[in-house]
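Issue 218. Parser rejects a valid record. Input:
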Amino acid sequence: MALWVVAGLALVVAVIAWSATRRLARRLDTLNQSYWELRYDYTRLRSQVSRLDPEQAVEESSASAPEAPTVSFVSLSSMKAGQKKTDSP
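Output the parser choked on:
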């Protein structure tokens, strides 16, 4: 008899967990949709502002864009050669 009670409680807990998961999934979907709508509105409004004042848009884009770091190519063979020199006694 106790086994049936434990199985019944486990079933009830599973149903509650499943419904909570479904609720959270719907909420996450709603938040995700709201995020993309906000991004769309932000981009649309930014383009409208840039059309109204093109000089300010150029200044903002040049001021907000960080300089790209210069990265030089280092071949793998030169790294291996450097390791051999430092590893040897």
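Fixed in the parser; the record now loads. The chain has a mean pLDDT of 82.
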